[in-house]
Amino acid sequence: MKKTNYSYVGITFIILLFGIWAVPKIVDSFGEPDLATIGEVPAFSFTNQDGETITNADYHEKVYVVEFFFTTCPDICPIMNQNMVKIQNEFYGNPNLGIASFSIDPTYDTPEVLKDYAEAYEITNPHWHLLTGEKFDIYTLANKGFNLYAGEVPGTEDSEASFEHSGFFALVDQEGNIRSRYDENGNPIIYYDGLTQEGITMIIEDIKKLL
Question: What is the Cα–Cα distance from 100 to 125, expressed in whole angstroms?
Answer without folding.
Answer: 11
